[in-house]
Amino acid sequence: xASGEAAAVTLFVVKLTVLGSSGGCPGKGxxxxxxxxxxxxxxxxxxxxxGTFMALMDHVDPAAIDAVVISHAHTDHxxxxxxxxxxxxxxxxxxxxxxxxxxQGTVEPLAAFVRADGNHVFHMTFDFNIVNGGDTAxxxxxxxxxxxxxxxxxxxxxxxxxxxxxxxxxxxxxxxGGFPALGLGADVMxxxxxxxxxxxxxxxEYHLTSAEAGSLARRADVGRLILTHVSPTLDTERSISExxxxxxxxxxxxxxxxxxxx
Length: 262
Known about the structure:
Blueprint: E1 15-20, E2 34-39, E3 42-48, H1 52-56, E4 67-69, H2 75-78, H3 81-89, E5 98-102, H4 107-113, H5 122-125, E6 126-130, E7 136-139, E8 142-148, E9 156-162, E10 165-169, H6 179-182, E11 188-192, H7 210-220, E12 225-228, H8 236-247, E13 252-253, E14 259-261
Helix pairs in contact: 7-8
């Protein structure tokens, strides 16, 4: 390099990788909800929906996971924690216990699946940390802030922040709950858009329409909107169009392998 010549170096502060985004169940070629959040040497696996463990292995050695966040106890967000358990418990694999952040009532169904009593290796493999809205945690240099989502089982939305950049993830939520406040001013909002069309009194109250996701992101003044948790039976182009109408610009769609520098 010539003297005085500036080096063009691009570094990411926070990196989001989509492992899967299918709402309710895995779709063809798309696992259920799962995301990698990385900053420097820190890697967090957020939601471990069905099929995401196999996708994760395409990107990182599972033993390199520093912590896991499970938003709630529905299988499309937590089932593959069982696969991760098998990998970590019966290695050689990596250092245990792995910190897991999850809401009240989520450990019990997971433990029951592997018949884990208090002395079971399951509880030696994971260090379970129960979180509620307003709680915070630190994993490496990444700060996590949690909010209670509007869903029929205890569910937490989460905001990841590092180096002055932020990513807000809705998890599963209907209108209301703590996610709108959690997402204020985020650089990137990863928001569920499970439903389509105008909401009626008969619609399921515990999920957002794509138009509601767009409106929420506009009010939160986020820099970038990414739609996720779209049912595999829906036309994703319609979801994008309906969200664009309320957000003011076309959002992106979370698809497996998508990498975002926040």
